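Work Package 3 (structural annotation) set out to generate three-dimensional models for the target panel prioritized at the project kickoff. During this period the team completed the workflow that converts sequence records into discrete structure tokens, so that structures can be stored uniformly alongside our sequence database. As a representative example, we reproduce one entry of 395 residues exactly as it appears in the project archive.
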Amino acid sequence: MPAQSHRKSAMDWKVKTFLITGMLVSGVCNTILNKFQDMQCVNNCSDPDPAKREYFEQPVFQTLNMFIGETFCMVVIYASIFWDRISQRNGAVVPAIVPAVEAQHSGLELKGWKVFLFWLPTLCDLTATTLMNVGLIYTSASVYQMLRGAVVIFTGTFSWLFLHRQLRVYKWASLFLVVFGVSIVGLSSVLFPQKKPSNLLRGSDNHPEEPFDWESAIGVAMVLGAQIFTATQFVIEEKVMAKYSVPPLRAVGLEGTFGLTSVLAAMPVLYLLFGKSHPGGYFDLYETWRQVTTYPQVWGTGIAIAFSIAFFNFFGLSVTASVNATARSTIDTCRTLFIWMISLGLGWERFSWVQVIGFTVLVTGTLIFNDAIPYFSDPEEAEPGEHAPLLSDLE
């Protein structure tokens, strides 16, 4: 028995290590690939003047790409159902493929027209993702990822306002730390501008940056504004999942399906309203199609992005269900750090001590809020892994 217990413990450790590594790698790849796609030249690429070249700037398509990846989660669900039927037919009781496939609490079954309740958070997700994709065009990958940590501010505030969740003094203090850290990171992006796409892939600094980067300021504002919609999405999701028993992976699949349908329906309308009068813009459907189908580096990266977000959701939910949400938030911190290191290593960014300070303050506030630092954690609160993993644990 002791030997069997030891083998089981070793196997559990290997599974958890695999899930954590998979979540970290897929999460890092997703942000890096999105930034790499933004850097692809799609017009006037042979022009000797880099300033006249045009780069891939299609945030609506990237949002569509994300929902395609989330829709892949439905494949895992149906594979789990098929697996269960096969095991039952053979007279064996085999657990679901991943814990995230199973509902973690009892409640009313979500069926019929009630599944459309997930369309509300989907619309919030759609808006937030599109705004963040625009922001990523004008900011570096690491600043983009760090600024997304601001979602803690709005999620905590909205939970207090709308879910009537009481936050202790140390959690309010942690939110102020997050605000301070986000402010430093945002200012570092504006006052210490990063390289422009025209120089990123060439590794050139022939075109000096201006002392105050208005484009970075727009990007920072877009990413921060998107967090309001993301926080709203989280609050609605939590409200729905508190009443209904929904496997988290199914919730992701539903949102992916609803989001994919919504974006596909909206793209022709947006083209008629804005795209025709602004050729080459974000809503020019024909130009988007031309760019995606003409350049292999664009559509190839798009496929990789879709798979990375699917795997990130899969691994992320499995980690939250198998370990706990505190570990999940700690891993996300490592994810941001790796994105930063890779961007620096590829020459996509300049090193900034101001950004280091901002990131440190931001991470400290986030870890305190998520009870990841024992000294500040509340012993009376339930262990994060004991409740159902919510979608706020996702990308």
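Residues 2-166+217-341+385-393 form one domain.
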